[in-house]
């Protein structure tokens, strides 16, 4: 194993370790608990569900997942949760029919059981393919109507659901295998959050759809345009992309990451403003896509022989592609967008996140940083790694105001000019940047956090935080060790 492939593998493992956002078994446990509790509450208000509720209590987690992660069932459950919270949950309700039918469909999921042809892809955690281009069953029509709400007649664009064939099944199996071999931890984890796959041809404002995740509108399902994507490398990348959205949808059912979801921000590669929610979800994806790209650059020869060299495939350029990026553009690659979003979510936009959201962003940033440094770029001048023995000081002319109750520090840079928000960890590193050498800074940092964090992890957090402050032009290296700010 080369040093670079070892770096990729370490990041792959790191991205499944966070208990709230990385560890899929824990995420699933929380989602299933939410749905089981929901059944209990719904049955108290919809008395016809009493028998179904008793049956749910006897289900294994495997059976419960088949029931609750079905897209038709999940749509009904989320509507029931909304009705419950609004105080309007009452009979008759769609769930009174959907839940008993879902229990009757076991061991299949409800939607899966209504497909005219049952097609599965993926060996480890099989996904079923939508076959509802010509729906004849009521639940199949529900799925088709949900699709129309996103891509079809009811949307601003136009879209068509495609019936799966042997060629599409083969492409999906190859791409799932490729993703699972490139990123056996984080890639495989994202795939486990996908229950079903639908094939489509669609256009929306801005161009042709390559892939999509419908969220609450089409839960547990991702959409792929196989003909547009063409090659297994980019299909695998889209499986990862949309699977990550599914994973974060599941994780945020129990852990809020955004404090002000209505707030919007601007990214330089889009003309429209994004919600802060979209920025967080996109950062999650771009971090993983950058790792996916790094994995392809360090891929074992056997993968190239099995799936072809990525460079040999013709593909339209897009930031998520591992075959063809617009490298001439400042933000033409996933890693470029991950850097931008990470820097701003750690600083200028940090106040829009919850404490858990800031922890989430920091975890993603720290997981990707070694890959970014060792594979995508040489350490720039002023980077922590390039001069570890030098000193660091605050940039001249900054204004700062602490919020102890909010556990953050606001810093205004007249040169920008903008206000940046530092969480407690970044605040500590900022205060330690008083001209002392990096080694002195490290000792002081370990004295403060050493009782709560293992030394190696603390050193990594210090380097990560200091690198972010340098990039944000809040801290700069001194010209000579010992210079004072």
From TrEMBL:
Domain of life of the native organism: Bacteria
InterPro entries the record matches: AKG_HExxH
Protein name: HEXXH motif domain-containing protein
Organism: Pseudomyxococcus hansupus
């Amino acid at each position: 194993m080369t040093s670079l492939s070892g770096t990729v593998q370490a990041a792959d493992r790191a991205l499944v370790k966070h208990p709230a956002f990385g560890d899929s078994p824990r995420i699933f446990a929380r989602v299933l608990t939410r749905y089981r509790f929901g059944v209990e509450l719904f049955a108290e208000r919809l008395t016809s569900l009493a028998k179904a509720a008793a049956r749910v209590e006897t289900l294994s987690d495997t059976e419960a997942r088949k029931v609750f992660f079905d897209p038709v069932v999940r749509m009904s459950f989320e509507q029931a949760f909304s009705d419950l919270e609004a105080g309007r949950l009452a009979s008759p309700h769609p769930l009174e029919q959907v839940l008993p039918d879902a229990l009757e469909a076991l061991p299949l999921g409800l939607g899966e059981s209504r497909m005219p042809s049952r097609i599965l892809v993926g060996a480890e955690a099989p996904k079923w393919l939508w076959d509802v281009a010509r729906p004849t069953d009521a639940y199949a029509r529900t799925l088709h109507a949900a699709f129309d709400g996103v891509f079809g007649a009811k949307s601003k664009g136009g879209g068509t659901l495609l019936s799966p064939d042997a060629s599409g099944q083969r492409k999906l199996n190859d791409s799932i295998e490729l993703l699972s071999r490139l990123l056996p931890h984080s890639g495989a984890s994202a795939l486990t959050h996908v229950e079903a796959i639908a094939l489509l041809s669609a256009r929306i404002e801005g161009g042709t759809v390559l892939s999509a995740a419908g969220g609450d509108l089409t839960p547990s399902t991702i959409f792929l345009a196989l003909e547009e994507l063409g090659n297994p490398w980019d299909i695998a990348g889209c499986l990862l992309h949309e699977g990550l959205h599914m994973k974060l949808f599941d994780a945020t059912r129990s852990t809020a990451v955004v404090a002000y979801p209505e707030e919007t921000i601007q990214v330089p590669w889009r003309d429209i403003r994004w919600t802060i929610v979209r920025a967080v979800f996109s950062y999650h994806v771009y971090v993983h896509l950058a790792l996916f790209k790094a994995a392809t650059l360090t891929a074992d020869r056997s993968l190239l022989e099995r799936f072809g060299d990525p460079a040999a495939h013709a593909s339209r350029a897009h930031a998520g592609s591992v075959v063809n990026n617009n490298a001439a553009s400042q933000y033409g690659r996933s890693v470029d967008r991950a850097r931008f979003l990470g820097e701003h979510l750690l600083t200028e936009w940090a106040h829009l996140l919850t404490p858990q959201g800031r922890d989430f962003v920091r975890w993603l940033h720290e997981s990707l940083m070694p890959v970014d440094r060792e594979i995508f770029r040489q350490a720039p001048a002023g980077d922590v790694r390039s001069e570890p023995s030098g000193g660091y000081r605050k940039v001249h002319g900054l204004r700062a105001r602490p919020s102890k109750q909010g556990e953050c520090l606001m810093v205004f840079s007249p040169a920008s000019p903008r206000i940046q928000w530092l969480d407690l960890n970044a605040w500590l590193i900022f205060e330690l940047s008083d001209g002392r050498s990096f080694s002195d800074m490290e000792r002081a940092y370990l004295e403060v956090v050493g009782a709560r964090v293992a030394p190696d992890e603390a050193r990594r957090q210090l380097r990560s935080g200091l690198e972010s402050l340098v990039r944000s032009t809040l801290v700069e290296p001194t010209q000579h060790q010992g210079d004072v700010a």
